[in-house]
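Contributing new records

If you add data, match the layout below exactly. Sequence lines come first and carry their own label; structure lines follow with theirs. Keep one chain per record. Anything else will be rejected by the validation script.
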Amino acid sequence: MSCWWAPHSSLLTATEEDTLHNSLADVGGLTRWFQMLLTDPKWSTLAGGYRVPYDPRPALSKLAGNVEVASAWEELWNNLHHQADVGEASYATVPALVDLYCTDNVPDWNLFALTATIEVERHRKGNPPLPEWLRDDYQVAWRKLEELALTTLRKNTTSETLQSLMAVIAIARGNLRLGALIIGLDSSELDEILEQYLSWKEFYDEAAS
């Protein structure tokens, strides 16, 4: 598979480029596509959730190398999604993440939660449309993501993971509103809905919670 775009001038410094390339060289088991993708300099020209250029490659390379994973996910969440705003860097990160976790890496709940959030907010008025140069790869990534979610769902999962998996499956099956509802609720909001519409505590066994 070829890269999405023609090369552009990188906004990374020479030192940052060297660090990125060295980190990729130390990572085994990655597809050739993923390594080509992360070395494409157009990443540094794409805007994230703050509507300013954000290059996610250092964070992606940490995930690929299973190094500082928690901080890498925190960085991606903070920069790719901000108060419902997303950008082209957010969209472009989706195929990169899916490709990474479709190899030998064990899927992280953040993969499903972040991609679902990005896809929901992609439809929000005011956010940029999906670029034509990314459309095919983005759609392929979502087909892979659905299969990965279904596979992960068959295993033992935490409540947090289950919620993000169900959101991905709903969105992939064309039910964006259901996916948005699932991914957007925290446990306290779910409790409020159950109480409001089902009088949960009055009529249901607490063991079912």
